[in-house]
Amino acid sequence: MTLQEFSEKTEMDLRGTLERFANMEPMLVKFLKKFAEDPSFQELSQAVADKDYPMMERSAHTLKGVAGNLGFQSLFHINQEIVDAVRAGDYSKIDDCFARDKEVYDNIIKCLTMLD
């Protein structure tokens, strides 16, 4: 899968992200492939399962930052929703947000395995 195809399938802001990476596609691809090694999503999953709201906020905030840097706009916005919900004490939104988060994250990971 080309970087362009990857960006389309993951709703990635390719243009903006490439600008952040000085238009160096090989460097961007290198960092994209490292995304799967980032522990933030697994930490968030555990925090959601444990209803550990402080950890949920931290891990969602970290994942939001990583997603933003790599141009994963959907992942960025969903994790912002989780952070906002935890900070507001509106825990009723967490399960729905996390289900959407997992779907988007899983798609990104699947597409990363096909990225050239």
Any overview of this molecule?
The protein has 116 residues and is mainly α. The protein has one domain (3-114): Four Helix Bundle (Hemerythrin (Met), subunit A) (Up-down Bundle), CATH 1.20.120. It has helices at 3-10, 14-20, 25-34, 40-50, 53-69, 73-88, 94-114. The longest helix is centred in the C-terminal third of the chain and has 21 residues, at 94-114.
So, CATH architecture? Up-down Bundle
- Largest beta-sheet details: none
Give the H and E element order: HHHHHHH
Beta-strand proportion: under 5%
Using brief descriptors, characterize the structure shown.
mainly alpha; 116 residues; single chain; Four Helix Bundle (Hemerythrin (Met), subunit A)
Chart the SSEs and their pairings.
Blueprint lengths: L2 H8 L3 H7 L4 H10 L5 H11 L2 H17 L3 H16 L5 H21 L2
Helix pairs in contact: 4-5, 5-6, 6-7
Quick synopsis:
Helix content is 78%, strand content 0%. It is built from seven helices and no strands.
